Amino acid sequence: MKELKWIKLDISMFEDEKIKLIEQMPEADTILVVWVKLLAQAGKTNANGYIYLNENIPYTEEMLATIFGRPVNTIRLALKTLRDFGMIHIDEDSFIHITNWENHQNVEGMERARKQTRKRVQRHREKQKRKQLENKDVASENVTLHETLPNATEEEQEQERRKKKEDKEQQQTSAIIQFWDGNGFGLNNIQGKNRLLSWLDDSSFKEPEKIIVKAMEIACANNKRQLNYIEGILRNWENQSLLTLEEIEDSKKEHKKQAAANDGYNYGF
Question: Basic residues bias: where (predicted)?
């Protein structure tokens, strides 16, 4: 996501009791400088308060020491202090998140950046849609459109197609988010949800929404409710060119069949 050019700071921030307590510590000034640098870094990342090198690599203490120009021990102390005071959260994958980020963010700038991102995504989806339409039976689709819109112009027909596409994408997104939220993957793990939703556009699966949910079901069955585990399953299927649910199920049956044959051979059956 595009980085912001500025963030906002509350002019009464030094009246906050947490800041006042930090100011009584030996390394108060350094800790507060690191705090402001973390806010600025979150603005650069522009991911709802998350701070990371990229979506797969969180910042380590050593990385932050290099970026912020401070000793590692100072960064370590600052992160511990800020976490103890509930000003940051570090999740199980070591991703840093600013608590109550909405109190610090440049709302207008963030929304403008998001609009730009949505436009890029829309252009990408329209390009994909044109490719799909080239491979479809366009004549059959046009018959349906003319039945519902007998006097529709070409532009109106395109708008109808776009609306159907957007409705389908919304349904796909909702299905994944509902499964995530309802099965213990982390209700507030926005960064994880966004990474998983990116598979809808960036994967080779024929029906990505169904396959993503299938991978999540397997993660639940194995009590491995982590994003990395789900993505490992999805990458494994892509690497094996298993791009539909049918191909995945057939592969599973084949593995069971081979395993049974091997057991039978081993025991002389």
Answer: 115-130
Q: Cα(75)–Cα(216) distance, rounded to whole angstroms? A: 36
What is the amino acid identity at position 187? L
Alpha helices for 88-204 (secondary structure H)? 107-135, 138-148, 154-182, 190-197, 199-202
| Per-residue model confidence as pLDDT tens digits over 86-115 | 999 998 888 999 988 876 565 455 455 455
- Nearest 10 degrees: CA dihedral of 207, 212, 215, 216? -140
* Six token digits for residue 139: 């004549």
CATH 1.10.10.630 for the 171-260 domain, yes or no: yes
- Domain boundaries defined on the chain: 13-103, 171-260
Asked if residues 101 and 48 have their Cβ atoms less than 8 Å apart, the reply is yes
> CA-CA distance, 264 to 230, in Å (whole number)?
32
Considering the entire predicted model, what is its pTM?
0.43
Contact 87, 99 (CB under 8 A): yes
Kind plus residue range of the DSSP H or E element containing 238: helix 227-239
Give the tens place of pLDDT for each residue, 20-76. Answer: 999 999 899 999 999 999 998 988 887 778 888 887 888 999 999 999 999 999 999
At position 11, the amino acid (one-letter code) is: I
Q: Please name which of 89, 80, 75, 109 lies closest in space to residue 7, comparing C-alpha atoms.
A: 109
Fold for the domain defined by 13-103: Arc Repressor Mutant, subunit A (1.10.10)
